[in-house]
């Protein structure tokens, strides 16, 4: 536990250093240049094109999340392992209307405890993400393609973010588990 705390402090200090020196653009360029060495062929397969929100944002083949219980294992999502912090994260695009069921399948298979959404559903008049969770009015959403039912158990709205507790039920096996969904109202 002590090692994890030290790693978190180190990450915070590194973030502050980059931020205070205005080095984000340089760092982004360095990472982008390194990424040319990695392939992302699976994302470009014809059968996967309609599962990508943007043509130029694709998961690398070596780190992409692979869906297990479906005919096509592709989802636009990457597994990021932070060894120093002893944590793993999944970075994914905002689900499209035709990939919401795949998103919940990934949440189920990866046993994801929390989803942090950093964008809004609509930004500057464009859809950035499909409405993949139930609203307070509808309370439930069913995804027939992957056989999941998502139920809104609670919702707590603050000035800059909303926390929801969602229950995900696999209709095929009847099992359920809860995941926390936090969506922010951030200005980027």
Automatic annotation (TrEMBL):
Any one GO molecular-function label of the UniProt entry: non-membrane spanning protein tyrosine phosphatase activity
Localization per record: Endomembrane system
SUPFAM superfamilies (alphabetical): (Phosphotyrosine protein) phosphatases II (SSF52799)
Annotated keywords: Hydrolase, Membrane, Phosphoprotein, Protein phosphatase
Superkingdom, natural source: Eukaryota
Gene Ontology CC entries for this record: cytoplasm; endomembrane system; nucleus
SMART domains: PTPc (SM00194)
EC number assigned by the record: 3.1.3.48
Cross-referenced InterPro entries: NR_tyrosine_phosphatase, Prot-tyrosine_phosphatase-like, PTP_cat
Pfam families given in the database record: Y_phosphatase (PF00102)
Gene Ontology process terms (BP): negative regulation of ERK1 and ERK2 cascade; negative regulation of receptor signaling pathway via JAK-STAT
Domain Tyrosine-protein phosphatase: 11-188
Protein name as annotated: protein-tyrosine-phosphatase
Species of origin: Fundulus heteroclitus
